[in-house]
């Protein structure tokens, strides 16, 4: 499945590593997705609210189904996040631009998840003109 099809099929996106800093891509990209109608669920170790949404400490703490796990964490953290994404029954794992992990790919694909790495969800959204609004 192509990245555009994965994003087109996603309504609820858990963002691991959503930043408090509006100047960072890890804040701006999810904000753009939210502005285009995607449901964003922030995952952050210490924040309580980001982008007007309740923050969860881990993917396992999210009390609703997640279509896509969007990762803004360093590559070495990706395998652990991939395991959690499989555990919660996410449909896809997406590592943002600059994040690559052969192990995360293996875990995701063996767990039945679609997988994208080293691509920006906001760029794919804009290029494919995907919007939930």
UniProtKB/TrEMBL annotation:
Transmembrane segments: none annotated. Residues 7-99 form the CoA-binding domain. InterPro entries: CoA-bd (IPR003781), NAD(P)-bd_dom_sf (IPR036291). SUPFAM superfamilies: NAD(P)-binding Rossmann-fold domains. This is CoA-binding protein. It comes from the Bacteria.
């Amino acid at each position: 499945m192509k990245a555009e099809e994965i994003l087109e099929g996603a309504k609820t996106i858990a963002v691991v590593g959503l930043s408090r800093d509006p100047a960072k891509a890890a804040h701006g990209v999810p904000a753009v997705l939210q502005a285009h109608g995607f449901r964003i669920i922030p995952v952050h170790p210490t924040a309580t609210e980001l982008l007007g949404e309740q923050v969860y400490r881990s993917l396992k703490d999210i009390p609703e189904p997640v279509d896509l796990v969007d990762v803004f964490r360093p590559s070495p953290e990706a395998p652990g996040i991939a395991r959690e994404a499989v555990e919660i029954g996410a449909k896809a794992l997406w590592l943002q631009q600059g994040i690559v992990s052969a192990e995360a790919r293996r875990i995701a694909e063996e767990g039945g998840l679609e997988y994208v790495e080293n691509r920006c969800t906001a760029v794919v959204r804009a290029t494919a003109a995907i919007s939930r609004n």
